[in-house]
Amino acid sequence: MVRTRLLKRDTDRFEREDDEFFTRVITGFDELAANEPDRWLVVDGAPPKDELELIIRRGVTERLGL
After folding, report:
1. What is d(CA 53, CA 56) in angstroms, rounded to the nearest whole number?
2. pTM for the whole thing?
3. I want to staple 41 with a disulfide (CB 3.0 to 4.6 A). Which of 4, 7, 26, 59 is the partner?
4. Ramachandran region of residue 31, left (φ > 0), alpha (ψ -120 to 50) or beta?
5. Which stretches of the chain score pLDDT less than 70?
């Protein structure tokens, strides 16, 4: 029932975008990260949640000099 309701709901602007749009967004963020690696942390979202938390915590701590 919930799934049926979700499928019938209106899509927002981002949900209506095509793959090309998301490729451009990813490319833009990748360029920002490459140009300012001390400000950006690029994280692979594949590891388990607990491992991701450690990766993010370490990355932020390093960038903030804590």
Report:
1. 5
2. 0.62
3. 59
4. alpha
5. 1-8
